[in-house]
Amino acid sequence: MAAQIVIGARYNGPPTTANGGYAAGLAAAFVDGPARVSLRRPPPLETPLDVVRDGGAVRVLHDGALVMEAGPSDAGFLDPPVRPDLAEAARARDRHPWIGAGNLLTGCFVCGHGRADGLRVTPGRLPDADVCASPFEPDESVAENGIVRPEILWAALDCAGYPPFAQGTDVIALLGTLEAEIGRGVRAGERLVAVGWALGSSGRKSFSASALLSADGVVARARAIWITVPGP
Length: 232
Hints:
Helix 1 (20-28) crosses helix 3 (150-161). The protein is built from 4 helices and 13 strands. The N and C termini lie far apart (44 Å). It has an 11-stranded antiparallel sheet with strand order 1-3-4-5-2-10-13-12-11-7-6. The protein is 15% helix and 36% strand. By secondary structure, it is of the alpha+beta class. The model has no long low-confidence stretch (mean pLDDT 92).
């Protein structure tokens, strides 16, 4: 029987489709080691998606249409330029410019600041660096046997990498490609810091990096490509 994945309604990004990082993390589970996942269309919620293996790569399909494809990553992952502590990250989160505003992403499971059942990885800019940060404190509801599920780490890396080029503007961008490496498992209740920083842009594409930090060092790292949504 072919493998399938189903993305629960809790894990939305835009209101009716999945958070891109969460979806990417589910696809990455079928790849050994660091993975690269490209999203070809918005992943639907509460819908069985077929996983088709092709050597070391996989394709995720909905009714035969390609939703995501994943394979090994050879990205040059970067260490963050600064490593804020939890208190600095909490103050940065309070500066997130969309708090109190409404747009396509303010109800996101990961970065939506008002989500009681969300991760609240709502990064704001640090005062002395071109880096965004937020606390990341996953609980038992996103863990199995006390260890946070890997797709949750992918989700946090996703939204941590979004704000560096978009904050302070009304720009909306959606995840195109996410590459990540997870250095170790994270315990439920562990207190981490998520950071993200810009790597440049070209046309409608923007590039960023992100990382999850513990008191002992870097837990996970990622690189992302974002596609700007055309304005009205």
